[in-house]
Every structure is written in structure tokens, then in C-alpha cells.
Amino acid sequence: MSVELASVHPTRLELLRLKHRKSMADGIVDILKKEVDALTLTLFELIKKRSPLRDKMYATLREAFTLFVEAEMISGSKRIEEASLVAQRIDFKISEETEKGVLGLLFPVFQLVEETQISGLRFNPLDTPANLDKSSSKIKDALQSVVKFAEIEESVKILLDIIAVKKRQMNRLQFKILPELDTNIRYIELILEETERQDSIRVRVLQRKRKERALKHG
Amino acid sequence: MCAWKYKQVMPRITVEKLKLLEPKRITNLVGMSLNHISSELEKTSYRAEICELGTKELSSISLEEALLKNFIKTFEEIMEFSPKDVRLLLSALLMKFETNCVKALLRTKEANLSVEESMNYVIPAGRLSEARCRKILENSENIGDIIDSLSDTEYGPMLEKAFEVYLKDRIFYLLEIALDRYVYHRIWRATGNFWGLDKKIARTVIGLEIDSINVKTILRCKAMGITEPQIRRYLIQESKVFGERELEEAIRGSDIQSIMKSLLESSKRAMARDHRYIFTEIKESHITSLTILETLLDRGLVDTNLRIMKRYTPYFNIGLLLAFFNLKWFEVKNLRAILRGTEAGIPPDRVKKLLIL
Predict the structure, then answer these.
(1) pTM strictly above 0.80
(2) Which of B71, B224, B346 to substitute to test the interface with A, most A CBs within 10 Å?
(3) Are B81 and B9 within 8 A, CB to CB?
């Protein structure tokens, strides 16, 4: 790793400043590690929740589909398709809010809102089987699961993005900033040592010259 | 009772009845592929309609259409050879298929489908031929126009009244319910043309069918939490066993068991043994699933038809004729269930549970 040393002032003040920066960078790395640990724990918790929810969602969808096919088996595919053409529509809306989570991160909270409330039946009771109502209500349940699943997926995505950012920051500190600081500190220390050596030699030379001058005049 | 009037129609019914598939043969079709089922059906009375499909893609929908065409064709053939009073009843029964056609016209227009798309849903029956349905669709812009186009039939004036209610409530199925109620009213009225044993048999079979529909409606509405006045709007008020008072009692029931108990008591009071058999079986089986209940009620209808054939001397009354049509209809329904179940990959056990055998 090449480090730009030309811009470094080899002074004691700079050395103190760099040492202070290094201890701060070490502290930040520690904090980042703890944050990544906390985020990873939350991520695992979300992933644990995701699996049963996905299974529940698929099971409900499968059940709704089977009930729908059974309705088609009883009344005929075309008749059910026809009935669905004029069935009272239910409009859904997804309300999006945010909730503070781990490390003060904002996680989405999705809520399925039924915009049209149907008090009666959706289909002609004399013409369609009860399975059609059951299938319709199962689909509504499945939609709730789909929205909850999307909420978890979005939270997982946010967490993964944050973890990736934190890891990048940690890597930059560990493998770029800290080695650079170490090199600069070492460089300044070497320069300062060299200056000290030169100074001591100069002092000794001066002392020797002074002694020789004293002997000459003496 | 004049048995002589059945001299032409009964031999035909007997021959047609022999063509009905045995329950075992129907059950064996469960689990087979569509191609297998279609080739099996080619060996039966459905041969002509299945062969007509030709190069069309084989699907449950095309096969279902073929089955329905066969049923309507058989119905019309038998009707041709029937005596006048029987023909009146059969033409009233055929109105059930005509109303399906009217419903298809109304539904597709309400959904703003093109004429070609709409025609995919229309199965012509009786007076509503394919050409007439197409013409009605082409000349109509909304359901009001369709009702006007039907003004030369009895459906027009009746739908006009229902259309006013529809415009007020904007609930489409109220139009369909009005049609269904009207058709059953006509069928019930047609049974009044008979006398003696014929009347008794026709009222038992048709009455049981109407009662079965009413019971299904009550149970379904109760399950969905529909209010009592609303349930009353959906009921068909034509029956000799479950009249207005009996249905009111049933509506007041809190759960399936109490409704069944009330209906069983009503059938005991009316001394309707066929009703009693069905409701005793349902009450004793302690069922809570509406689907199973619906299947049991339909099975009850089939059993009643089979019992009527055994109970009364065949050939000399309307029993065999009505039983044949009901058995044929349930055969079509069973085949349709098998076809759709096979296509959707429903497990054979689940398909068998829905068969009405």
C-alpha cells in the first residue's frame, strides 16, 4: 500500500494530532463492530419471522386457489368467471408508516386498508357455491400476509443496505485509514529520531570544536 | 292419471336412461388425464359433442361446453315427444338454461366486454339461439338495452321491475336473483298443471330442489352474517313443505345444527318423508362445513330421484322422466367437476368428495 507522505509535516504537533486521530479511529471501529453485531442480530430475527410468514402466505394462497377451483368444479368455470365479472369490487390501499427500530433506523410498517366495505354477499347465493365466498375471504387473508411479508422484506433490505455501508466504513477504517495513520506516525517518528540524532551529532561536533578552539588559545 | 299419454316419451327416456354412466365408471375417471377422459367420453352418449370439438384445444372449458350442449340437446329431444302438460313443465325447466344465457348477456354487458368476448360465455338454450344472443349484444349498449331487447319474452317485463331495484341499490346480483326466483315460480306453476300422482311426484321433486336451494342460501347467508330481512329477499317462496313460516323459523336458527333441527321438525310436521331422510342424515352427521352440506343436499336430491323411480311404477307417471333429467344433470355436474379438478391438479380424494353419486 502506497501512502502519500509528502504532505505530512514531520513535527511533534502533527505526531500528536495523528496519534489522537488513530485512537479515535480505533474507537470508531469498535463502535461500528458493535453496530454491525446489533444489526445482524435484528436481521436474523427478521429472517426467522419471514419463513413462517412466507409458509403461511403460500398455504393461504393455495387454500384459496383450491377453494376457487372447487367452486369452478361445482358451478362450472365459465359461470364462476362470469360471476366474477360483476362481483362487487373491493378496493384495497396500502398505508405506509415508519417505526423506529434498532439504532434508531426507520423501518416501514405497511397496513392493508379495505377502502370499500361490503356488508352483504358479493355473489348471487342462488347461483354460486359457498366455496366462492370462502375463497374470496381466504384471498383477503392472503393479501394481509402478502403485505406483512413485503414489510419484512423491505426491512431486511434496509438492514442489509445499512450493514453493507457499515462494513464498508469499517473496512475503510481498518484497511485504509488506520494503516495510513500508522505509516505517517512511523514516518514522523523516524524523521524526529533522525533530527534528534543529527542534533546530538551537531552538539557533539560543536563541543569538540569548542574544546579544540580552547586548546589552541589556551 | 292417464298413463297412455306417456306412450311416446317413455321408451325414449328408458333408452336415454340406459346411456347414463354408472357411478363406478364416473369414479374411475377421477385421476385420469383430460385426453383419457375425453376418449372415454367418446364411447358414451356425449360422443357427437366431443367429436365436434375436433382440432379445438382440449380443455375443461371446451369439454364442459360439450357436456352442456349434450344435456340441452337431450332435453329438447325428449321435450319434443312429451305430452302437452309435461312439455309445459319441461319448457319451464329449460328456462333455467335460458336464464343462464340471459345472465351471461347481462353480466358481460355490465363488464363492458366486446361481442366476441361475451359470446364465449353464452351457451344458447331454448329460444335464445346463438344468432339471437349475438344480435342482442350487438344492438345493446348497456343492460337497460338488453332488457329492452328481451321485451318479447317473459324475461323482459320481469327484469324491468328488477332493474328499478338494481338502479336504487346498485347490487347486480339482485337482477340475477329476480331471474332465478321467476324461473322457479314458473316451474312450480307448471307442476300445478298435473293432477293425481303426477302432481304429487312433480311437487316432491321440484319442491325438494327449491327447498334445497333455500336451505343452502339460508346457511350461506347466516355464515356470512347477513341480516334476516336481507335473507328473505333471496329466498324462493314456492314450496309445499317449507313455507314462509318454516323458512322464518330456520332463519332464526343460530347455527347449522339448530337450523337443521328446525327444518327436520318442519318436514316431520308436513309428513314429507323425502325431506325427512335428507335432514335426518345431515343432522346426525354433525357437519359444520357448508361445502359438505351443499354436497349432501345435492346427494339427497339424487337419492330422492332414485327412490321415486323405485317407489312408483315406472312408465306410467312423470317420476321416471324427472328422475332421468335430474340424474343426467348430476352426471354432467360430476363430469364437469372431474374435468376441472383434473385440469387444476386437485388430488383425486378431494375431487371424489365433491361428486354427487
Answers:
(1) yes
(2) B224
(3) yes
